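DM from R.C. (forwarded with permission)

"hey, sorry to bug you on a friday — could you get me a structure for this? deadline for the figure draft is monday and I only need the backbone to look sensible"
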Amino acid sequence: MKQVLGIILTAALTVSIVSGTSYNQPVEATKQTDVKWLQEIQAQAKKARSLDGKVVLEKTTLAQVHKSYKGEKNSNWCQSGNGLASADRALHYCSTYGVKDTKAKVSAIVYDPKQVKRTVTVKEVKKAYPTAKLDKTFNVMTVSSKQVNIYLNLNSDRTQVMSILVKYN
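My reply, with the result:
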């Protein structure tokens, strides 16, 4: 059931991202920093934490996120409609719809590479995550671990990563 929910969430996120602006931009040469950044995301995802370590999945509430980060905004990326984004829109913290921020636990973290001036290619993903599996139906690459999965939403050409979703299986 959780896998089906994860696939639906990922598909909806992919559709919302891809249906926006055209993302078929030229791909830059591989930068070691992007591969390292992906590996850092994976290392923190294994601990169910955000890249900066301030948010823990299913433990940190949106109210705590609000206290930790000044200048965050409502996130329009969260399928549930309940979430916060960092001031630069590079990170999105999603939670359950209809739950007050004081009780709403962060259930997913979304990274937007474009907002941090990164062009992450599928080639880099394969270097960082050799076990990543491609789902051509949803244009998603999945990196599975025991508890937390990483979903990499790709552009329509399947050459570039548009967003990275971290959530429990």
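R.C.: lifesaver. The two ends are 10 Å apart (CA to CA).
me: no worries. Residues 133 and 159 are 14 Å apart (CA to CA).
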